[in-house]
Amino acid sequence: MRDKDFNSLVEQYSEQLYWHIRGIVGSHEDADDLLQETFVKVWRALPDFRGESAVSTWLWRIATNEALGFLRKKKVRAALQFQSLDALAERTIDNDPWFNGDEAERKLAKAIAKLPDKQKAVFCMRYYEDLPYEEIAAVTGTSVGALKASYHIAQEKIREELNHS
Known about the structure:
With 165 residues, the chain is mainly α. Helices cover 79% and strands 0% of the residues. It has eight helices and no strands.
């Protein structure tokens, strides 16, 4: 039964979770690796899933935590190498052979990459996935009011960044 359930989850959610993770980390290779890590964690935790939240919320939480954890490690590596994480994120977007957007989408991706990690995750879940604030709150453990404020601030930062580029 576990194999069938797991395969069903992978089939149903892989694409959505990939794009969610990619929106946060910015790179195809990193998103692909993190998606695999997400499903490894799901596989291990599936027998213990009690259904206290929706399966989709549980999956989004695992994927979001994987992406944010990856960014934390990346920040530490960048700091140890005295590199700017913003510059590193821009180079990642510019050098990504899988990026297929136009120049406006590239500028938007760079502006999003400059957001603080949790704000970036909230922005991506709301803007790209159109998740309701209530579901984002369940994923992040943040109140709806705080999420709305965070999303609004992210929009303003992105607008300001786009006006200056």
